[in-house]
User: What shape does this take?
Amino acid sequence: MRALPGSLRSPESEFRDRAMNFRVEHRASRIKNLASSIQYRVAAFSNVNLTLYLKSRQQMIDRALARFLPKENAPPPTIHKAMRYSLFAGGKRLRPILCLATAEGCKGNVSEALPFACAMECIHTYSLVHDDLPSMDNDDFRRGRATCHKIFGDGIAVLTGDALLTIAFEIAARGKPTRRYPMSEILREISTAAGSRKLIAGQVADLEAEGKKVSRAELRYIHENKTAAMITTSVRLGAMSANADAKRLRAVTKFGHALGLAFQVIDDILDVTQTTEKLGKSAGKDVAAQKATYPAVMGLEASRAEARRLTNAAQNALNIFGKEANPLRELANYLLVREY
Ligand code: GRG
Assistant: This one.
């Protein structure tokens, strides 16, 4: 079918074409990235093949999420379609993978950590759906496709976020508590990370910082709460599922905090150095929205050095663990050199 000249096309059909082109370019760039990461090895630690490791963990998480979520045609289908649309849009699954790798690092069983890992991915996806709304960051693209509200409308997107947040607790409650960590403590851990003193606190501070000059301490507050808290909780849940002792739980908490901050510094750097196609979300948005970011506050080179320093701190926190924690070590190094 021939494309209509621009002036004769509706805004909806132009948006659909843009979204389609974007998706095709994004996929092509991800395949290229995967090919280059196949050559990627972190010689320092082990013979973990990170590409295969990530792929198998992603599949495990995707399968579990597909089981935990209501079917697309379950009434009312609109909300279940929208939940699955955002959840299966191609996210990296970083938080659940970290949860599983930490369970492994604490000599636990990955399958015991799976419900907690999936719960964290649902909360993360809810936060992205809400963040993309016109009343927040107002974004058209996420995870390589049109954002939830662009497809389903603002009202359904608000409800999709609500539903993903709520189902996270239903999924977590299917997990098994351990001797040291009863279910009440596990659920409190998750609600604290997602609540008004952590994730939402970071988002509020982020919204309020827009267009203002922020100090390093204010920037750290935003990132500690918006990003690092969710990553820290993901690894803590992995450790809890393995009944880790207090010393190990403290060590993974340090690891998650440093890694979470490093992840955000890299995210800020990628926003100014990568393309929209590669990132799967709109690049350059932070500068356009005058957001508080590491490159804006301390410059690009100092931000890179900070990401390396934080990754190093994350690695040091793992010193008390044996080779079972090698996947965690590999993941931390990989996140430092990631390109999207
Ligand atoms: C709406 C309460 C509420 C919070 C929104 C997630 C968020 C907070 C804002 C999105 C923008 C942003 C820079 C968040 C920091 C965390 C971050 C880098 C999220 C993106 O995580 P990735 O790269 O995403 O792991 P995928 O899509 O791969 O899962």
User: Anything to note?
Assistant: Residues 91-92, 94, 124, 127-128, 130-131, 143, 199-200, 203, 226-227, 264, 267 surround geranylgeranyl diphosphate (CB under 6 Å).
